[in-house]
């Protein structure tokens, strides 16, 4: 059962990454970098909604690309 939180975080990260993939490419980030950003946002915000995680990841992507 210890892998359940990890699986939930992976599912959330996959969902957020799917939402932001076009945005990430638009600001010049490749999939591996975008995935790292999204995974960090998911790990840093365990109680946040998917929308909040996506917003935080989007801001991090903008910061990294600038």
Automatic annotation (TrEMBL):
- Protein name according to UniProt: Uncharacterized protein
From which domain of life does this come?
A: Bacteria
What is the organism of origin for this protein?
Methylobacterium oryzae
């Amino acid at each position: 059962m210890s892998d359940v939180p990890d699986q939930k975080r992976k599912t959330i990260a996959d969902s957020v990454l799917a939402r932001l993939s076009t945005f990430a490419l638009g600001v010049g980030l490749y999939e591996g970098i975008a995935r790292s950003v999204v995974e960090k946002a998911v790990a840093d915000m365990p109680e946040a909604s998917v929308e909040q995680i996506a917003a935080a990841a989007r801001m991090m992507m903008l910061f990294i690309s600038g």
